[in-house]
Fold this protein.
Amino acid sequence: MNNDLIKIKSEAEGEIRAAKTTADLERVRILYLGREQGKITGILRALKNTSAEERVRVGSFANALRSEVDRLLQQRMAELKKGTMGSALKEEWIDVTRPGARKPKGTIHPITQVRNNVEKIFATMGFSVVEGPEVETEWYNFDALNIPADHPARDMWDTFWLKQPENQKSEILNPKQTQNSKLKTQKLLLRTHTSPVQVRYMEKNNPPIRIIAPGRAYRYEATDASHDFQFNQLEGLMVDKKITIANFKAVMEEFFKRFFSVGTTIRLRPSFFPFVEPGFEIDISCIVCAGHGCSVCKRTGWLELAGAGMVHPNVFKHAGYNPKDVSGFAFGMGLERIAMMKYKIPDIRLFNSGDVRFLKQF
Ligand code: PHE
């Protein structure tokens, strides 16, 4: 029996020393001191069946061995724990003086920048910013703006029509239109301009009105350097008792002066839009080529920036106003156009190209 114990002692000592991890060590502990199968535990348990003399002799040695093995296990455990702590410190050491890795940061899209800038300028002139839906009804996009179905001017805005579920047709119409049976069958489309917001706003608000309505518009269009099928417009509307073209010119001149921070030449050309009378277009001298002629201005030296005019009496009527009581101007400006001029961008298609090299410049 004693020989067995001596052998067990040297084995246990060897294995404890050899244990590399706390898990290894736990296995060694179970092997020798485990309640069920432990080698030393087994010997102590077997003493029951031996003589009293044997029990004293072997028992004291086995008990001493159990304490010794326990001590060695604890000592080795402490060593291993210290060891792992040491390596964790080594692994997690960081050089706090090292320069950090810069995360790539996005930039604000040039159109968003221009829009923010434009909103700020108009806000200082007392204009509020309002919005309208991009999916519009035929009524607001055309009829309410004095463009009936058979009007040739609709060709200019022939556009993306949307399929509309039968059961939703009446919901999207306002009460005024549902009374008119002809309009019940009207279709949905992607708005071709931001002008429908004029009517939507006037229906719900009374003069005096000073608003701008920025947002996307869509046209069925062959793309080139200055046309895209999706673009951003800025609608403007000012309505009060005695608004004239003089007010319009003053607001526009002030806006361009502040937006471009340099003097540009403006010209008003008579033009036609069914929802204004009189109507005109505002051109400014091309900033890309300084008026010499380039692909952006189609070699004319001028860039068409905005359509505008005095709000047509029929539009006031459709919005529920008496045209005898009020007057006002409206304009619709291409945000891409003014961005192209401000930043000298030669092609409108760059805005939606997703080319990071382009976007990073702003
Ligand atoms: N909605 C017109 C267009 O998109 C522009 C416009 C707006 C003209 C307001 C006159 C008044 O072409």
About this structure: The first helix runs from residue 2 to 18. Residues 2-91 form one domain.
